[in-house]
Structure formats: structure tokens, C-alpha cells
Amino acid sequence: MNDDREDVLAERVLFHGRVFSVLERDIKLPDGGVVTWEVVDKRGDSVAIVAIAPGPEVHLVQEFFGGTGERGLCLPKGGIDDGETADQAAARELSEEIGLTGRFELLSTMDLSPGYLTQRTHLYLATDLVPAHRDGDETHHLRPVRLPLADAVAMCVDGRITEARTIAGLLMTAHRIRAE
Amino acid sequence: MNDDREDVLAERVLFHGRVFSVLERDIKLPDGGVVTWEVVDKRGDSVAIVAIAPGPEVHLVQEFFGGTGERGLCLPKGGIDDGETADQAAARELSEEIGLTGRFELLSTMDLSPGYLTQRTHLYLATDLVPAHRDGDETHHLRPVRLPLADAVAMCVDGRITEARTIAGLLMTAHRIRAE
């Protein structure tokens, strides 16, 4: 144990639901003090995909969000299923939500709120898009939306797109295209 | 009730902890079906601040994240206390974590993972920075880091900065400065 680093000393499960667990972790701070923090565990990471068509245009989905109770535009995304790699999950989610497949490249592995969420989101860039069989049963509340990447970036900057991972993914992709 | 929109029909508390509650919400979908989703409620929104000094340089903090168990660089941020406005929380957090105050402007109100989190983060740009009294007791595990905005943007793009709100805030600020 390195004395000037933090360590998770112990962990207890406070709640175990269908989707979430709430954990209580005892954490040693660099000054030697121990704090107890509540942490939410979604039991598995997720993927999100910036799917770029010529233009450049980007494929987003409009969906209803159960947490905030509002509709919004966001990247196609979803959880990594048991036995699946992140790459496979990205291809499956893009197929299910947009009906496309393509060439996938990992842009970043992001955290949402790493102070209290264990979940990470693997952000993929998808290019060379072609139609895929649209599988799955989760598309009934999603509406695919295709729009110019510049318009999507403008919607991030003026507050019409609000999901942090979507803003991060769109602006990273615009940054990369500008640099090429 | 608008039949082609979603509605939250009912909500039950499954768990009530010190920081989090887990709720179960019955949600009517546009096709008339009803689904039950688990939602995490952190009971209150948060603020994050992109504090820009001449250069332009940006003030970040390195901290330990209890959720992911790792250290990382992120924007100064924190919860809005009872009786506090978002503006007041932004000024307090920047003072506590960086020791500065300045002129604050709301850039965006972001959601983290709106499908299952109720929490929103009000993202502020802070400029015209001047020293503030450093109050509070939460700084012992935070290390302020000041670096060129261009370097911080490069760290977002190459994966060294991983927190989605921090990536979103830094790239939105760089976009805005470039447009000016």
C-alpha cells in the first residue's frame, strides 16, 4: 500500500436492484483519514457510437429519458451484454438503433461521474457505414435523426443537446475531422 | 395526457441512502406499453466550472474518484447545497477547490446519463479570475492543476482526460474561443 495514494479499504452492498447496486466504500485518503462514500454500480460498462456519414453528417437518436423525464438527442448507445466485447456491443447497438454497421474505432473510454459511478462508456467512431439487419426489441421508443455534424455541434454549444457524453463525442469528432 | 408522448405514471422508492435513492418508475411508451425502469436520484443538481486564465489556460483539479477507484483530472465541481442557487454553488466550488473567483456565465445545463440519473450539471465559464478566500473542508484530496487550454484539449482527444463533463466543457470552451 502506497501511503500517499488513496485506497479502497472495504466495500459493502447497501442495495441490490435489477439494474443498480448501491455500495458503501471505505476509502483511505493521502493524509491517512478514512472516508465512507456511497457509490452506484450499474454492473457493466456501456458503449456509445459517433456514426459519421459523408457530408460529414452524424446519426443520432431522439429518445425519452427515464431519469430526467424529458426527450433529447443523443448518440446511439447501450450496455455491454454478458459475454460480449465492447467492439461487439458497439456494432450491435448501431445495428439495433440506426440499422447500420461500419468500421469501428475506439476514440476514448469515458467516465460519467467517476466519483460515484463505477460505469465507463467506450466511445467509438463508426465510418464506412452500410445497412445492417436491424435486430432487437428496444427500438420502439427511439427515433433515428441524421443531421450535419456542424449542426449537431451548434446544438451542443447552444444547449439543445445536453447529454455530456454526446457533447463530448460530437466535439471530439469535429476536432479530429478539423485536424485531418 | 398526450398519447404519442411518454409519461411517468408512477414512482416508488426502492432504496434511500445517505446520498442516493433508487426509484422504480412506470413509464408509458408512445405505443401504449408500460415499462418499469430503475432510476438513481442523487437528490440535487451539481455545478462544474471551466475557469479560464489568460493564455488561455484552464484550472483543473486532480482527484481520486471513489466510483472508478482511479485518479484523474476534471473540472472543479460539486453539488448545489440546500438554499443555494446554481450561480452561488459555482462561485463557492471554484473558491473552495481553486481559491479563485471571477465572472460566471452559464454555458449549458448537461445531463450525465439521463436514462437512469435524475442529476443535471450546470456548466459555467468563469473568467476575469481573482483570488478568493479558500473555504470549506473538502480540498484535502484535491490538487489544483493549471495548464494551457490547448494541452487540456489534447488530453481529452488522446484519452488522458476521461470524465465526459470535463471533455464536454473543455471542448465547448475551446470552440467558443475559436469562434470569437
Percent range for β-strand residues of chain A: over 45%
Mean residue pLDDT of chain A: 91
Question: Biggest sheet of chain A: strands, sense, closure?
Answer: 7 strands, mixed
Instruction: State the oligomer.
Output: homodimer
Shape of chain A: elongated
Going by helix content, strand content and strand pairing, the class of chain A is alpha+beta
Q: Give a count of the beta strands of chain A, DSSP E runs of length 2 or more.
A: 10
Give me the Rg of chain A, rounded.
19 Å
N- to C-terminal separation of chain A?
A: 44 Å
Low-confidence stretches of chain A: none
Estimated helix fraction of chain A: 10-25%
Which protein chains are joined by the largest interface, and how many residues does each one contribute? A-B, 65 and 63 residues
Keywords:
homodimer, 180 residues, alpha+beta, 7-stranded mixed sheet, 3-stranded antiparallel sheet, 10 strands
Please characterize this protein's 3D structure.
The structure is a homodimer. Chain A has about 180 residues and is of the alpha+beta class. Chain A contains 3 helices and 10 strands, in the order βββββββαβββαα. In chain A, the strands form 2 sheets. In chain A, strands 4, 5, 6, 7, 8, 9 and 10 form a 7-stranded mixed beta sheet that branches. Chain A has a 3-stranded antiparallel beta sheet with strand order 1-2-3, with no helix packed on it. In chain A, strand 2 and strand 3 (about 35-40) form a beta hairpin. In chain A, helix 2 (about 150-155) crosses helix 3 (about 165-180).
